[in-house]
TrEMBL record:
Keywords noted in UniProt: Signal
Keyword tRNA processing: no
Ranges where the Putative auto-transporter adhesin head GIN domain occurs: 42-223
InterPro entries from the UniProt entry: DUF2807 (IPR021255)
The protein's name: Putative auto-transporter adhesin, head GIN domain
Signal peptide: 1-20
Presence of keyword Cytoplasm: no
Length: 239
């Protein structure tokens, strides 16, 4: 992970610990706000909230949490992108009861970029053709995908869980935390990791591995390992 990103994430962890630690609590000003949105296949998310994704025919957005936070969340359409973002606030805006949960339904998802603080989870599997994912920030990520091709680039502080099926995946990890993709059944995989933590994957076809730094990689599926490059003190284990 790049030095400047590490510093930013550590500062976020200190500044917003009370906020993320109480995402499931409800204040006296807890509200639910449903907003109309147009369908989009590209999603950009930044801010401090939990995001729950579902796939469905009718696009929908529901925001639940402290009323002041709900009002600060902005929903914009920028070309092909649907953007969820906060107005600028400082840490004094949050209190120990602050909470914000965002429930979003989309028909398709071909590009997903996120940064900030919070947990992200798919509540239903997303069935897509090709999808690009880029993740920065702090939080836990749980995605279930059925895709022809996945391009994923992570530089996060937190744990990542991927499951589902894909014909091909290019996975890059430059973060701090564990990546568990052992339940993502891949036919072809290229994995590059220079982060800190464990990475577990499942591949049943051609597998290419590049491991830098001090990370540890394990894999299942009896793949055909066409490349295995280990730099530093990282290690690779076949399970």
């Amino acid at each position: 992970m790049k030095t400047n990103l590490s510093i930013i994430l550590l500062l976020l962890a200190v500044s917003f610990q009370s906020c993320t630690g109480n995402f499931n609590s409800k204040s006296e000003n807890h509200v639910s706000d449903e907003r109309e949105i147009e369908g989009a296949s590209k999603l950009k998310v930044s801010g401090i909230f939990n995001l729950y994704l579902s796939q469905g025919d009718k696009p929908a957005l529901r925001i639940e949490g402290d009323e002041a936070l709900v009002q600060k969340l902005k929903v914009n359409r920028n070309g092909d992108w649907l953007e969820l973002d906060f107005e600028k606030v400082n840490e004094k805006f949050f209190n120990k009861n602050s909470s914000l949960d965002v429930y979003l339904t989309l028909g398709d998802l071909e590009n997903f970029a996120f940064e900030g603080v919070g947990n992200i989870k798919t509540e239903t599997p997303f069935i897509v053709n090709d999808i690009k994912i880029k993740g920065d920030g702090m939080g836990n990520l749980k995605l279930e995908l059925i895709a022809k091709k996945i391009d994923a680039d992570f530089a996060m502080l937190g744990n990542i869980n991927l499951k589902g099926k894909t014909d091909e995946i290019n996975l890059t990890n430059d973060g701090m935390g564990n990546v568990d993709a052992s339940d993502l059944i891949a036919q072809t995989m290229t994995l590059k990791t220079s982060g800190i933590g464990r990475v577990a994957v499942h591949c049943e076809g051609d597998l290419s591995l590049i491991v830098d730094g001090i990370g540890a990689v394990s894999y299942t599926g009896n793949p055909n390992v066409i490349k295995e490059e280990i730099n530093g003190i990282g290690k690779v284990t076949r399970n």
